[in-house]
User: Fold this.
Amino acid sequence: MAVTLRDVALAAGVSPSTVSRALTVPEKVDERTRERILTLAAELGYRPNRAARGLITGRTGNLGLLVPDLANPFFPGLVKAIQARALESDYQVFVVDTDEDVALEPELIRQLAKQVDGLLLCSPRMRPATLREATEATPTVLVNRALARVSSVTFENGEGTSALIRHLAGLGHRRIGFVGGPAGSWSGAQRLRGVRTACATAGLLLHELGQVAPTFEGGTSALELVLRAPVTAVVAYNDLVAIGLSQALAERSIEVPGRISVAGFDDIPMAGMIRPSLTTVAMPLARAGSAAVDLLLRHLGEPEPRVRQIQVPTALRVRGSTGPSLGLDES
Amino acid sequence: MAVTLRDVALAAGVSPSTVSRALTVPEKVDERTRERILTLAAELGYRPNRAARGLITGRTGNLGLLVPDLANPFFPGLVKAIQARALESDYQVFVVDTDEDVALEPELIRQLAKQVDGLLLCSPRMRPATLREATEATPTVLVNRALARVSSVTFENGEGTSALIRHLAGLGHRRIGFVGGPAGSWSGAQRLRGVRTACATAGLLLHELGQVAPTFEGGTSALELVLRAPVTAVVAYNDLVAIGLSQALAERSIEVPGRISVAGFDDIPMAGMIRPSLTTVAMPLARAGSAAVDLLLRHLGEPEPRVRQIQVPTALRVRGSTGPSLGLDES
DNA sequence: TCCGATCCTGCAAACCTTTGCAGAGTGGGC
DNA sequence: GCCCACTCTGCAAAGGTTTGCAGGATCGGA
Assistant:
């Protein structure tokens, strides 16, 4: 019932081989023949059967995308960009959400790997050894995580972070608090390191206030940690935590940024929607997403993939949640 | 290099047919043989080649999921649920984001349809005729939209909406404003109808204030519409609009809910994170998503799919953005 | 006029799995 | 002891596409 290569061939009075070539290696077939075939194929509504093609070429035309949690507003932007870029190159994207279950990741990856040409792993939480194992079987690009000898697209936090710290220093803040994310998180470690360096450079005192879940609730739970510390500004592991914290502060009628400034990382859409709007270090998700796809596609074309580690620069977004220090710590 | 059915057969000393049957129709093969095969298959790490299987069975084991915009916080919850439920049944999900481009939808659907066993269309914006055409070629379940003679999972707005209106009436509001969503939107029409009915029942005066984009910016742009109308409470097409409106009101120092109450639809995660938190009509996304997958899978098993239209009930979430009316409209 | 090169096309095999059909073996009933 | 029914297994074809190889045509050069 579906129209096949044979049908087109029959209609065009040529062999299936010729039709196949007309579609995949156009230069190998006479121009007039090719045109006739293409017209006919379009008329008949021919679409190649990807299963059959995949059977012989060993390629599926699919990419696998693993994300820990679609409900985390950080990821949809990434998924969107990845999916759009893949579609442009005629690849379809399998999306798998692990629901933050680290233990599930390896099996899901194995399952996924069999059905795709390449894998995009977004911020996988898994241990390095397990991760490496997974990346060895299938062409893989890591997103928002780096690993030796594996291609990746990560965010260059340095720039955005130091801009943020300079911004805070410029506002007169001298003691900065940092609320960290989950212990095992690669990007969490990155961010902490960036903040440490930037504070040292700017001559600010950094108070590491502890670690919380990377969620809104994590942020509200950080309230006590923050209030106990003599800081005038707090940088949170990510925007959700920053927002949770801001709301908890508001709950207690502690003004942001009047009494305390708050900043985050990610620039999730919500950061611009709340009041006060959130100062944050923006990750260029769209750029990272398409870069990751480009990189992966490039690997698929290479017999011996060359590892490339791309860093996309982050940028400070100054908004309403940061303001001049009251200098409370000098009292 | 990949281990195939033949390898397992060779190792087990049986024919490929037997291995195939051991895996797909266990009762047709001797128990001991089957056990030996299964053990061996597991040892060798055999995974069936889905392309080959698909070629002969005509099934791909994939489902296609089309959403207008992943960045709209309404959808990730749905996608998550759908993907999880599909994975349980060993189906993979292709996610396609149309980026709100209605004109693109038909072509994307056609493309997708060839590679999946069934289609889940989330709130497709396309015209009924075009939509019907698309649904005729492939087993399809619509989500958040209904169409005659096509299976669907929709939200039963009536209940949640009338609860919301009763809630407002109970707070003393007499004049309610409604800010509508995009003109062609099916769920927009549904919601408007629900609000109309509920207001009529409760004896409230409904002011239809016009239509805006279903986004945060749409909400802020609705400010003037709202201020011009003599209403003490506003119901917005969705939460994003409601939140945009709230922030625009706050910008003008108009207190919510002090001077005006605001409510939305969807119960996106953000609704609980802003201040004041947003009163809204919650859509049970997880339930809808898994119901949609179940329905689709059921269709795939039936030779002549029976159309089923499922409605999942909505529920009112009372939060901080609605409060007693000041009775301004009576002044 | 003949030869070689070049361009285009067709043949046929291959990819891996499923499945209808038939054959072999077993056990039970008469 | 014979036949039938039943269970289990293997054979072979089929599904749609790609691709190495070879053949035919065309053209240019000598």
Q: What stands out?
A: Chain B touches chain A at residues 47, 49-52, 54-55, 60, 62, 69-71, 73, 75-77, 79-80, 83-84, 87, 92-97, 99, 108, 111-112, 114-115, 216, 243-244, 247, 250, 269-270, 272-275 (CB under 8 Å). Chain B has a mean pLDDT of 93. The longest strand of chain B covers residues 205-211.
